[in-house]
Amino acid sequence: QLKLEDYKDRLKKGEALNQDQLEAVEKYDEVVHNLEFAKELQKTFSGLSQDLLKAQKKAQRRESLMKLEAEKKKLRTILQVQYVLQNFTQEHVQKDFKGGVNGAIYLPSKELDYLIRFAKLTCPERNENL
């Protein structure tokens, strides 16, 4: 653009320009228009790029929150199962299941024994003093 402005100034001062320079001066307005268009296009692309980055960050945050919620749900389920299994290690719970009383279904001793052993293998001992 600076070169074209120089040609234009030289032409105004009456200097003779060669054919290529004259054609370039004639296209000065077109070049300026194209430059302005390119600047606007660059601004548009820059804005779209920023919007895309924001959307990606938002999606990543949403995905992280969903993963965290899924992990919490798994942990809750594990703790619930552990709580149920730990109850099978208590004497009064075992008696209820052996007799099918107090809302417990009847479990044969062999099955109850399996549950008790499974509970001891999968549930860590709790220190009630903590």
From TrEMBL:
Top-level taxon in the UniProt lineage: Eukaryota
GO BP terms in the entry: positive regulation of canonical Wnt signaling pathway
Key words, A-Z: Coiled coil
InterPro entries recorded: Caprin, Caprin-1_dimer
GO MF term (any one): signaling receptor binding
Family: Belongs to the caprin family.
UniProt name for this protein: CAPR2 protein
Gene label: Caprin2
